[in-house]
Design a protein that fits this description.
The protein has about 375 residues and is α/β, with parallel strands linked by helices. The protein has 13 helices and 13 strands.
């Protein structure tokens, strides 16, 4: 057993099986990347020299960060922001951030840094058994960034309930070891249940991308496209096709009017032309409609709620998609930004939307 690996895992709050204790996954993203103001904040906080460099370059600014950002045990918000965003959030000016960036870039990346960065990744395979002849869904629930447990549990229960009604099998896991070519071939769709943070190693990323592009189905819910910073460009820009900009904060949850943008979409089957519901409404940096091949299913009537400002930007989009589909190679992608409040997973329109998304992604209705 590697004592450094074990101690790091304990510090990060990660449970390790004997197989995981024996070796750390060595191909984790950003393992060898130089320290900078664009690093995951948690990687800086896990390094004593890096933390000291930030303090020297911007005295007192780290102490102003909210506890939500400063945790080093996964899941932590520090995994989905960088020092740049974090320092600007607490009022640091651009010159201070530039000094922090210059100071961090002078640091060497040590073996201990590499081990700490890789400790939040895993290759542990959750055991499962599938009955022959029944379509199967992999319900993926690993989070290294933000985790809202009530919404995750409500979404999990909804997927299991919908699958039972449709005769689909569900395998759920909060480990990443099943994201490999052999296991992925056994599933029609992978559902990312409010997944947050960078959760796949480089080999797992390659396996997942090839599986999707060769005909797999992806369904993403709410937080699966809700990270302030993404460290996997293909996932954010090609698979989802939109980057999170923020959500209202005052108040966070608002009643809004949801509009069916394309009633011909398979994802909109059986939905009314419009309805109202209360949730946390995401805005995106740019409309996914601008990405070729996107079919917007639902949009928000911005006049029905107050997008306001948040996360340092105006959250009004004008054209405001919240659910859409896209072909990715031979595969299918469906995403809905609805889903922070656990109550919405009992909403009949939302349940119909996700059931339709699953059926379309799995090609069950072809």
């Amino acid at each position: 057993m590697n004592p450094v690996r074990t101690l790091l895992a304990a510090a990060l709050g990660l449970a390790l099986t004997p197989a995981a204790q024996a070796r750390a996954p060595l191909d984790c993203p950003l393992r060898d990347a130089p320290f900078s103001a664009a690093s995951p904040l948690v990687d800086v906080l896990l390094s004593t020299p890096a933390t000291a460099a930030v303090e020297q370059a911007a005295p007192g600014m780290l102490a102003k960060l909210p506890p939500l950002m400063t945790g080093t045990a996964a899941p932590t918000f520090g995994a989905i922001v960088t020092p740049r965003e974090a320092l600007m959030f607490v009022g640091a000016d651009a010159a201070s951030v530039d000094r922090v960036d210059a100071a961090l870039r002078k640091l060497a990346v040590t073996p201990e840094d590499r081990a700490a960065r890789c400790a939040r990744y895993d290759d542990e395979r959750t055991p499962y058994r599938l009955a022959p002849g029944k379509p199967a869904i992999l319900l993926f629930e690993k989070m290294t960034g933000f985790r809202d447990t009530p919404s995750v549990l409500a979404a999990h229960a909804m997927i299991v309930d919908l699958a039972k009604a449709r005769g689909w099998q569900v395998v759920s896991t909060d480990r990443a070891g099943l994201i490999n070519p052999a296991d992925l071939r056994r599933f029609r769709a992978v559902v990312w249940n409010n997944v947050s943070g960078d959760v796949l190693t480089l080999s797992q990323r390659r396996a997942f991308r090839r599986w999707v592009e060769n005909g797999g189905g992806y369904v993403g819910m709410h937080g699966s496209s809700g990270d302030p910073v993404s460290f996997w460009p293909w996932y954010a820009d090609t698979l989802i096709g939109a980057r999170f900009a923020g959500h209202p904060m005052n108040p966070q949850f608002q009643e809004a009017r949801v509009l069916v943008d394309d009633p011909r979409s398979p994802m909109a089957r059986g939905l009314p032309s419009a309805w109202s519901m209360k949730d946390e409404w995401y805005s995106f940096v740019a409309s996914p409609r601008t990405v070729p091949g996107t079919h917007v299913v639902l949009a928000l009537d911005e006049a029905s709620y107050a997008p306001g400002t948040g996360f340092g930007r105006d959250l009004r989009m004008g054209d405001h998609p919240i659910a859409w589909t896209r072909a990715v190679g031979k595969g299918r992608m469906a995403y809905s930004a609805i889903g922070h409040r656990p109550e919405v997973y009992a909403d009949p329109e939302h349940r119909r939307l996700i059931e339709n998304a699953l059926a379309w992604a799995m090609r069950s209705d072809d």
